[in-house]
Amino acid sequence: MERCIQAILFIIPDKSLLLNRDCVIVNKLYHKVLSDVLEPLSNRLDRCKTDRNSFSTNLVKIGLMYDVVYNRLHTGQWNAVESGDREMFTILTYVRIVYTLCVSENDVDSIKDAIYLADLGLMLGCPIEKADTSATTTDILTETASTLTNHLAEFSTLEPPLKRLRLDVQVENIIAGESDSNTVPVVSCPSIEYFGKQFYDLKQPAILKGIIDGWPAMERWHDPNYLLNIAGERTVPIEIGSQYSNDDWSQKLMKFRDFVKQNICNEEASNPAGEQRAAYLAQHDLFDQIPALRADIAVPDYIARTDARPRIKAWFGPKGTVSPLHTDPCHNLLCQVFGAKVIILARPEDTEKLYPHEHFILNNTSQVDARQPDFERFPLAREVSFYRLTLHRGEVLYIPPKWWHYVESLSPSFSVSFWFE
Question: 151: which of 4, 210, 252, 306 fits an S-S bond (Cβ 3.0–4.6 Å)?
Answer without folding.
Answer: 4
